[in-house]
Amino acid sequence: xRSISRGLAALLLFACASPLMAAEEALDWLQRxxxxxxxxxxxxxxxxxxxxxxxxxxWRQVDARGQLLERLLQTxxxxxxxxxxxxxxxxxxSLHTSDLALPVLADVQDVRGLTDWxxxxxxxxxxxxxxxxxxxxxxxxxxxxxAHELYLDSxxxxxxxxxxxNERNHLLERFQFVELSDQAPSLIALQGSSACLGQPGxxxxxxxxxxxxxxxxxxxGFRQIGAHQxxxxxxxxxxxxxxxxxxxxxLFVEPxxxxxxxxxxxxLGPTLALSRVLERGQKQPLLVTLIGEIxxxxxxxxxxxxxxxxxxxx
Length: 314
What we know:
Number of domains: 2
Order of helices and strands: HEEEEEEEEEEEHEEEEEEEHE
Distance between the termini: 79 Å
Radius of gyration: 22 Å
Largest sheet: 11 strands, antiparallel
Protein name: Sigma E regulatory protein, MucB/RseB
Shape: globular
Strand order of the largest sheet: 6-7-8-9-10-1-2-3-4-5-11
Keywords: Periplasm, Signal
Subcellular location: Periplasm
CATH topology of the largest domain: outer membrane lipoprotein receptor (LolB), chain A
Number of helices: 3
Organism: Halopseudomonas yangmingensis
CATH superfamily of the largest domain: Lipoprotein localisation LolA/LolB/LppX
Pfam families: MucB_RseB, MucB_RseB_C
Strand content: over 45%
């Protein structure tokens, strides 16, 4: 009887430990992915969202100053192009800077913290771009973010394929390399063409400007990871970026004419744009727009929680 009890106890201990070990293995893979995010490369990938496909070339290299340079070039349809340095847009051939906001260099921040908001596990292995990959699944623990499948090079940890999936198990977005070289591209290959127009940098940090509004509610795990403002025409547009280590969204706040003050909603694949008007009494109202890859219910609740801060006496 004692031997049976010991055997049962050992079996139960193994059963409890196995999910923890599996999660640890998956987290180790995500850490490898994070370390590979600055790996030099050049290659081609396909991108799909909302049933639309496009093909792209990408070059990535670290320059002498330690900046991570990235150049993207769409090879079908309109010849869209972008060059970035450490994620900051240097030039773009499109006025719409989100046209090429693709997860080519998707990264994971605070790997361990992700387990509070996602169930993380190794799903198996397969091949992508003639390379063996390990598949990592991230299933959300709430309704405020999407599920992900990440296909990582089994030798380097480099992200070779990514799927974003909604709560109904429908594919929202696919990114997948079809050709890849680990050879570092030349700095000439990372230079934008004459069609790639320089972009102005952030004008000022919001923290120093004390904006008169704040997001009263955020989904668990999301925190502010960036803020700046830009001048558009005669007005300043304030931009605040939030993330949970994987998913991101941005709030854009700008004055709007009373006659034009109305909300909007649009979605392309996983990317949602939703806005509401924030009245300010006798002052010009503010238009608050959320753009990001989060479910509509989460975006609506975030926008509903944006409120003006009380005016303090000088």
